[in-house]
TrEMBL record:
PANTHER family: VACUOLAR PROTEIN SORTING-ASSOCIATED PROTEIN VPS25, VACUOLAR PROTEIN-SORTING-ASSOCIATED PROTEIN 25. One of its GO terms (molecular function) is structural molecule activity. It comes from the Eukaryota. This is Uncharacterized protein. It holds the Pfam family ESCRT-II.
Length: 83
């Protein structure tokens, strides 16, 4: 599996291509959802996904939300594909 910096670019592209900007998704949907099935990050380890989301937040592409557990944590993509 690639590093978070590489994975964030793949997730960013998937979000843009699927029209998911301004959409809130759970971390579970990102790691295991229909839009992710054919992606390199499918079934990504939770720690790597968290680090990847941190990179996207720092870039201003996403905002994360706390959930009851890791899989229920959410992310809203706000500027995917802008770079």
């Amino acid at each position: 599996m690639e590093e978070p910096d590489t994975i964030q670019a793949i997730i960013d592209e998937m979000v843009f291509e699927c029209g998911l900007n301004n959409t809130i998704m759970t971390f579970y949907e990102i790691a295991h959802g229909d839009n992710s099935e054919d992606q390199e990050f499918y079934n990504i380890h939770p720690t790597v996904l968290q680090k990847t989301m941190d990179v996207l937040v720092k870039r201003g592409v996403a905002v994360t939300f706390q959930g009851a557990n890791f899989e229920e944590m959410g992310v809203k993509f706000i500027n995917a594909g802008a770079v």
